[in-house]
Amino acid sequence: MRRVVVTGLGMVSPLACGVEETWKRILDGQSGAGPITKFDASRVTTKYACEVPLGDGSDGTFNPDDWMLPKERRKVDDFILYGIAASDMALKDAGWLPEEEEDKLRTGVMIGSGIGGLSSIADTAVLLHERGPRRVSPFFIPGSLINLISGQVSIKYGFKGPNHAVVTACSTGAHAIGDASRLIQLGDADVMVAGGAEAAICEIGIAGFNACKALSTKREDDPQAASRPYDEDRDGFVMGEGAGIVVLEEYEHAKARGAKIYAEVLGYGLSGDAYHITAPSEDGDGGFRAMEAALARAGLEPADVDYINAHGTSTMADAVELKAVERLLGDAAEKVTMSSTKSSIGHLLGAAGAVEAIFCVLAMRDQIAPPTINLDNPAVKPRLSLAANKAEEREINVVLSNSFGFGGTNASLVMGKVTD
Amino acid sequence: MSDVADRVKKIVVEHLGVEEDKVTESASFIDDLGADSLDTVELVMAFEEEFGIEIPDDAAETIQTFGDAVKFITEAS
Fold first, then answer.
1. What are the Carrier domain coordinates in residue numbering (chain B) (predicted)?
2. Does pLDDT of B1 surpass 90?
């Protein structure tokens, strides 16, 4: 089977626009949470979230004008804007802006989203109700469809390979990277731009997740303490937004052009819970089987894993995942560090798996495990380290990233340093 | 230039992101001002909104240039 490596990274996160700035702030233990500013939150129960910091582009802020002309931006939902921005960063980081037709034919895109243009759909529904169908914009549909990040990126750079999009709720980003890797392994493409994007911080999004009893509600006085995976006082996830994009490339292709190689995608495992629409099965068996399959595909043993980026949403399900991880690792748990970066940036839903895969790559590059912040009063007694409130410098050669989504959909990615 | 022409020009400049001096009497939205078929649908909607008129689909198809738009709207409003 052909080998797949990561050669480019791009990110828009609630901590910053950009991979390195976000990573610096993650390691520093910062939180991206604050009062909701994107809409009037007076009617919804949860009034805080992890929003992308808007600004003039300096000091890690996100300036929409840097990524799309205003006249084009008007035609797309924010999840597409974030996806295009992160894709641009990843492609420039990879140095992959091909001009030859053959290269364009061999480059594909697989960028997904959990929900897509929720805010645009809600606004247009109101417009339809109040003003009638003739006022619905011709850009409403192409500006809301989930696969239109892939479409836009393909058009912008002329990529004519596989053009696909994943929709598996909070597993989207991980599934996109895993599925895109498979396409390269099987020879459908040599390069894939893969990941996820989300922008669901809008009134209907918060109201919907509040109705599911999934969001934190009790920390209006201190939003930065709201996302607290594994902590006794956790009360739900904090909604985040943004995008994570990686450039995946066939190993020989990357070597031949002298690309900077961050990591190798070694294994990818998928499973279904067949249990409940929003809750994981109580024994965590679905997550366990996804991790087990990813390791088997990588040809590795549980004892080979050094760092795990947990799904860890700051809900009751944290303990279920931990149980599954410790069942997988056995005695090897003693030497593993697992953390939830959702403690810093909240839950980016369809972008989460991609953003977290990037953190795994950086953890390996810098030999440091990012912290689980706000872990003051652990509700669990783990055998592994949760990197509570402080990044852990340690040897990291193999990483595993978990993503679990509504509908009982699970994905695990295993990545490692490239060895010949 | 008439009041109608000024208002139409403002909409065209905003929606298509073009320089004002490019929006001449004979400028075609698609051939000269970079619009695609979806842009022209949106332009017509913006004209309807601005002038409080209804432009039926078959009439909209005849509005190809800035001059066409000004003429149609002047007659309709």
1. 2-77
2. no
What ipTM does the predicted assembly reach? 0.90
pLDDT tens per residue across span B18-62? 999 999 999 999 999 999 999 999 999 999 999 999 999 999 999
Number of Cβ within 10 Å of residue A194's Cβ equals 34
- Kindly list the structural domains of chain B, giving each domain's residue range(s) and its CATH number in brackets, ordered by start: 2-76 (1.10.1200.10)
Q: Which band of pLDDT confidence, cut at 50, 70 and 90, is reported for residue A379?
A: very high
Q: Which two tokens stand for residue A282?
A: 């109580």
- A138 in contact with chain B, both atoms CB, cutoff 8 A: yes
Per the prediction, chain A carries an average pLDDT of: 98
Strands A107-112 and A163-164: parallel
pLDDT in tens, A39-96: 999 999 999 999 999 999 999 999 999 999 998 999 999 999 999 999 999 999 999 9
Contacts of A69 in chain B (CB under 8 A): 17
Residue A78 CA, distance from chain mean position: 16
pLDDT band at A419 (very low <50, low <70, confident <90, very high): confident
Is A164 catalytic? The answer is no
Q: Which residues of A90-125 are buried (b: 16+ CB within 10 A; e: fewer)?
A: bbebbebebeeeebbebbbbbbbbbbbbbbbbbbbe
Probe site for chain B from A76, A128, A137 (most B CB atoms < 10 A): A137
CA-based angle A267:A268:A269, to the nearest 5? 125
pLDDT-derived band at A140 (thresholds 50, 70, 90) equals very high
CB atoms < 10 A from the CB of A30, how many?
Answer: 17
**Catalytic residue at B57?**
no
Dig out the tokens for B51 from the structure. Answer: 């002038």
Contacts 24+ apart (CB under 8 A), A208-217: A209/A46, A209/A239, A210/A44, A210/A45, A210/A46, A212/A278, A214/A278, A214/A315, A215/A45, A215/A46, A215/A239, A216/A46, A216/A48, A216/A314, A217/A45, A217/A46
Active site residue A347: yes
Say whether residue A258 is in contact with chain B using an 8 A CB cutoff. Answer: no
A264: left (phi over 0), alpha (psi -120 to 50) or beta: beta
